[in-house]
Amino acid sequence: MTESQREPVKVFLVDDHALFRAGVRTELDSITDEVQVVGEAGSVAEAVAGIARTRPQVVLLDVHMPDGGGAEVLRRVRPELPDVVFLALSVSDAAEDVIAVIRAGARGYVTKTISSKELVRAVVRVSDGDAVFSPRLAGFVLDAFADRPGSAPINDPELDLLTPRERDVLRLLARGYAYKEIASELFISVKTVETHVSSVLRKTQLSNRYELSRWASDRRLV
Fold first, then answer.
1. CA pair distance 90, 69, nearest whole angstrom
2. Which residue, 45, 89, 147, 189, is most buried by CB atoms nearer than 10 A?
């Protein structure tokens, strides 16, 4: 079967932001007939049920969700549906997020800055058996699985104390974002940002955002 004759790749979207899912679905449906969105979900439970019902070839999977995240979806789906391929699509480009979801069984990891055409290409490639990563993320995986000096940390007791949302806030804080910008980026209030920063300072026993920035940089969170 030639490229133009092949059946479209059946795709299932998993992300807790409905507007983002709608945008991705519209983009994929409008620019190509290489992929076909067959379903979507905004939580782990919805994703597990929806994937079992629609039997997609590829699942586009968010990493952080309130009820467990992408790794939990993988843990619950892969034993029952081993042929389904998972491609992480996340705002996070942190080493520990990339490594965790790949260890859980995802075939690739791309960030939400990817263009629509590049995303289609990535979906088709993982469905064909390739591993696909946004350029700077591949090095994290190579480092982790090579287990060589300087590799990205996989198990870090201090990092494990932080919740996924606290890591998101810390990452943006370390990049120089103001509290208001962090709130806008993560769709939370400034007060919630302040609460997360206070919690991170307490858990890491650090004194200010400059120490937090160095701490985050040492763990490749930036």
1. 11
2. 89
- φ/ψ (deg, to 5) at 86: -110, 130
- Mean pLDDT confidence for 97-120: 87
Spatial distance between the Cα atoms of 49 and 67, rounded to a whole number of angstroms: 14
- Give dist(CA 23, CA 31) in Å, integer: 12
What is the tens place of the pLDDT at every residue in 34-92? 999 999 999 999 999 999 999 999 999 998 887 778 888 998 998 889 899 999 998 88
Structure tokens, 156? 């870090």
pLDDT, one tens digit per residue, over 177-186 is 889 988 888 8
Q: What is the DSSP letter of 88?
A: E
Query: Using N-to-C axis directions, what is the helix angle for 179-186 and 164-174, rounded to 10°?
Result: 130
Distance CA 201, CA 183 (A): 18
Q: Identify the CA nearest to 132 among candidates 145, 114, 153, 151.
A: 114
Q: Which two tokens stand for residue 26?
A: 């519209």
